[in-house]
Design goal:
5-stranded mixed sheet; Immunoglobulin-like; 8 helices; 475 residues
Length: 475
């Protein structure tokens, strides 16, 4: 017991239990290796699968051991533990909730009210995210959901730093280890709160991916799950999937991930991106897959410079191999609004007869999602011109495929006090817009081109209808 103000005794705080997985994914039926540090004599881990609602799948208790925290760029080497993942566990995103083990036997899982959503599981410590991949790829699922672990860790500040912030002149790149707490959940996160959804930090699983996955499974779709690093290592073409899904903020892609995704499209596989700022930075995983690095700064650039405003950043995808060639759009033709609430902005619909809009009641010229600020916090666009009838048409000057059809366009504010930020690009024309659209080349690629698409699934039945249409058509 410790003394409270006024002399009253109060219970001592329970020891913190923190942990991280040895690798961000594990196949069902294999062994999950994870690492934990705590001053508790024993600790408990409860494993929840995040679907329509989080579901408790299993638990383990282990003896506690303490190890000090490490740096952002080194393996923390905490004590390791093994947990055999049952072969019947479905593929999915799992969250481990850590805490000291109780002296009494744990209550049966049925006596504890289940969390209503992943936001109830989210926390800045005592959590661990990992993905269970399918025991047999595409056994029953035709959809594969890509979890952006590299982006989570790019913003993870465990160990004192992320892939952001000032760098010395002689350090054009920064490396972050995946073997530390955080990476989607359970660690401090770089970035400001989201004025439109302050419940969870932006750069976390609970903020964008979890709402999308919850809707996806509640809507009756069956999916397998993988991480971006799984796609770095493995080609998709032979696995039998019809659709690869990405949502929210899938910003950091390795060359292997992009190569395998492109090959999947070329061989007839479909891709649906319900997010933005996608494939913006190139990352390089270490040979053992335990860390990633990104070269953001050209030589001699002052500390603290905004790399998005300059050219010559070694790992900007658009400067060497524009991401438009795969995903149809680029952040450099859109932009971002980070500070506080933004002015409502939605997509002006065109080609309303397209099957994507079936059942929405939308007509050409209608505006989609403005009342809920659909466009932002970051959004992507294709270079385009206006036809004689005012329709936006992709020019292809930025690498966007000629077949890309713009289904919705949102011209971004250009006033200096609008709060919108824009990246450097080839074209000095200040006109920028978010462009919702799709193209077919081998397979079909759909892009919603805004990070906030998942947020509106709970708010707008037209967003839900479009999402269902896209997934049904492409899967």
């Amino acid at each position: 017991m410790t003394a409270a103000p006024g002399g009253a005794a109060r219970p001592a705080a329970a020891p913190v239990v923190d942990g991280y997985p040895a690798r961000p994914s594990v196949r069902a039926g294999e062994v999950l290796r994870f690492h934990v540090s705590t001053r508790a004599d024993r600790f408990r881990a409860d494993f929840y699968r995040c679907g329509a609602r989080p579901r408790l799948m299993g638990s383990t208790e282990q003896p506690g051991r303490y190890a000090p925290p490490g740096r952002h760029d080194e393996d923390w080497r905490w004590p390791g533990y093994d947990f055999p993942v049952p072969g019947e566990w479905p593929s999915g995103v799992y969250i481990a909730v850590f805490g000291p083990a109780a002296d009494a036997p744990p209550a049966a899982p049925a006596t504890a009210p289940p969390p209503a959503g992943a936001e109830e599981l989210d926390a800045r410590h005592s959590r661990m995210l990992f993905v269970v991949t399918a025991r047999e790829p595409a056994g029953t699922a035709r959809i594969l959901y890509k979890v952006p672990v590299s982006t989570y860790h790019a913003y993870n500040r465990s160990g004192g730093a992320s892939l952001y912030g000032a760098l010395p002149y002689d350090e054009p790149y920064r490396t972050v280890t995946l073997r530390r707490p955080g990476g989607g959940i359970g660690g401090p996160v770089k970035g400001r709160p989201d004025a439109h959804d302050p419940r969870t930090p932006r750069q976390t699983f609970a903020h964008w991916d979890a709402p999308f996955i919850s809707w996806l499974e509640a809507a009756g779709f069956t999916a397998d799950y993988c991480t971006d690093l799984d796609l770095h290592d493995t080609a998709l073409a032979a696995d039998g999937y019809r659709l690869l899904l990405s949502a929210g903020h899938d910003e950091y892609w390795s060359a292997g991930t992009r190569r395998h995704t492109t090959a999947f499209r070329d061989q007839g596989g479909n891709l649906a991106v319900f997010g933005a700022n996608t494939c913006w930075w190139r990352i390089t995983p270490t040979a053992d897959g335990t860390a990633v690095s990104c070269a953001k700064y050209p030589p001699g650039i002052p500390q603290g410079a905004d790399t998005d405003l300059m050219r010559g950043a070694p790992d900007h995808w658009w400067e060497t191999e524009p991401e438009n060639a795969l995903i149809g759009v680029s952040y450099r033709n859109g932009g971002g609004h980070w500070d506080g609430p933004r002015a409502p902005l939605g997509y002006t619909v065109q080609h309303a007869g397209h099957p994507v809009f079936a059942g929405t009641g939308l007509r050409d010229g209608d505006v989609l999602g403005a009342e809920h600020a659909l466009v932002g916090y970051e959004c992507d666009g294709a270079a385009h011109r206006r036809a004689a009838d005012g329709t936006a048409v992709a020019t292809g000057a930025d690498g966007t495929p000629a077949a890309f059809t713009i289904l919705g366009v949102a011209d971004l504010p250009t006033a200096p006090d609008s709060g919108w930020n824009a990246a450097a690009r080839e074209d000095a024309d200040p006109a920028r817009a978010a462009t919702l659209g799709l193209y077919t080349s081998g397979g079909t690629v759909f892009n919603a081109a805004t990070t906030d698409w998942a947020r509106l699934l709970a708010l707008d039945p037209r967003i839900r209808a479009i999402t269902r249409n896209v997934i049904s058509l492409l899967s």
